[in-house]
Amino acid sequence: WTGRLIAERNPSAISKIVPIARGTDFADFDPGSIDPERVSALREKWRLDDRAPVVVNLARLTHWKGQPVLIDAAADALRRGLDCTFILAGDEQGRTAYRDGLVSQIRSLGVEDKGRLVGQCDDPAAAMKLAELAVVASTEAEAFGRAAVEACALETPVIVTQIGAVEETVLCPPDVAEADRTGWKVPPGDSKALSDALVGAMGLTPKQRQLIGQSGRRHVTSAFSLQQMTDKTLDVYRSLLNGDQ
Question: Are strands 158-161 and 183-186 parallel, antiparallel or unpaired?
């Protein structure tokens, strides 16, 4: 996505563009390395029942991260019979009015018992580990979208919006076979489409979500590792030093 954007704005640079995806140290996002005590600590902190299915959104509180869209979608999904708790975790960074607006929205929709703003999360890996599903609801383009990759690395299926580079990190039909699905994509700002995706994803069996999560980990660890980022970056330097460009 970034490469296409640069090419559109500066066509003369097309031959020199080398896309290199941001790398993640997957040692920090290995599902086998997350101590269950870390997950339990978050459940206790967020007052979650041990049996409560959780959908998590990890993003700072700002309008383009799409929290209002997610709240509307969650309320609609709950009205349709979905039974889970929605956690919106992120620092307000001084945007008190925005946070207060989200609280008012949750109250006005009558979902205070199922929708929670929990503030800054200092253990995102544990948060994604405890969740059955992660959501990236951004309404403006992001240059990469780390949260989706980290969720996939922890074998947590993810719903993302089809905008910016974040949609490149998640695979779903028709771009891949159903067996290779790692999540779902919805149009940005479309609460009904997001509600449909939430109901569909949470309507799967735990085993089906597990298989999607495993596909997600295979995909991101092969495509977005720290190693691939450093290797490709060094390849560019070697190419330049050899006079190839």
Answer: parallel
